[in-house]
Design goal:
alpha/beta, Rossmann fold, Arc Repressor Mutant, subunit A, nine-stranded mixed β-sheet, 17 helices, elongated
Length: about 375
Amino acid sequence: METSDNLFLLFSFITDGYASKPLIKKLYGSLSNFNELFTDDTVLMKSKLKYEEIENIKSIKNAIQKFNLNDMKKILEKHEIKYVAFCDKDYPQKLKELSDPPFVLFYKGNIDLIKVSKSVAIVGTRTATNYGKNISKKIASFIAEQSIVVISGLASGIDTSAHLGAKDLARTIAVVGTGLDIVFPSSNKDLFNEMLDKGNLIVSEYPPGTEGAPWNFPQRNRIISALSDAVIVTEGDLQSGALITARFAIKQGKPLFALPGPIDSPMSNGPNILIKSKSAELLTSVQDIFEALGETKQVKINFKEDDVDISELNEKQKTIYKILSSEPKNFDSILSETGLEVQDITMNLSVMELKGFIEKSSRGDYEVIEN
C-alpha cells in the first residue's frame, strides 16, 4: 500500500487534478483509512462517501496509475528538486489553511525560510515603470534588513525588483508557475541561480516538466498571498495579475496595501482603484507595513530615487533621459514629447545605449537602466 507521502506526490502529477484538492483535503483530515480509498476498491465501495466523491476518487485512481513513482522520484533527483507533501509535518501551516492547498510543494533552496515568522508579498505588473521598480526594490531591501521575508513570483518587472532587493540578505521566496526545472521568463535565469546561491527559496506546486501555461500563474498567486502576512501591490493596470493576488489577499483576510501613483500612468490604475474602493490601505511608508505585522518599532525609508550622474550626456540626450526616467516609452512617444528631429533621436538613443544609460526592451520601448 502506498504511503500518504507517495500518494500526494502522485496526485501532484495529475494535470487535471486541481478540482480534487478540496476533496482530498477533506478526506485526509476526516478518514483514518484515507490511503486505502485509493488502493482498495472494497474499502472505497463500503465507504459512506457521496456518489460524486466516489466517482472523483475513481478518476484520480485511474489517473495516478499512469505514473511510475520511482521514475518520478528519479526526475526530481535529476533536477535536484525536493518536496514536502500535504501530509508531512513540515508542510507550511499557512498553505494548509487554503481550501485548495497544493498536494505537494516542490522546492529548491532554503526551505527554512518558509518557517520565518513574518513575511510580506510584493507584487505588480511585468511592464513596470522605473518608479515602480525602484520603490519595490527599496521596500524589499528594507523589509529584508528587518529579517522579514519578501515573497513574489519571479516574473519580469515588479517581481524581479522585489527579489533583487532581498536576495543578497537571503530573505526572499519565489513562487513560480512552472516546474522547477524550467525558468520563466528565461531572462530571469541568472536571478533564479543567484537566489539559490545566496540561500533563498524557490517553490512551485507544479511538477518538473510543467511549462508556463497562462492559467498556472493566477493559481500560483493564491500561494503567494497565503504564505504572506501582508500583501503590497505597487503597480499594475486593471488587467494585471497583481490584482488577482490582491483578491486572494482579501479572501484570505490578509492586510492589503497599494502604492498610489500618477493618475496618468496606466500602471498605477490598479493600485489607485484598490485604494479608491477601500479594498487596500494606502501605503504611505513602510511603517504602515510594520504596524500591520504587529511591529512597534519606528522605521523610515528614503523613497527618493537614487541620482544618476548624467553629466556626460549632451543636452538632447539629457532631455531624452529625463522623459524616460518616469516610465519606458516607444520611439513615437519620445518624438512627440521631446520635439526633436527623427535623426537626432535615432542617433542619441544609439549613443545612450552604448554608454549604458538606456536599453531597448523586447516590446520595443526604451527605458533607463537601473543602478
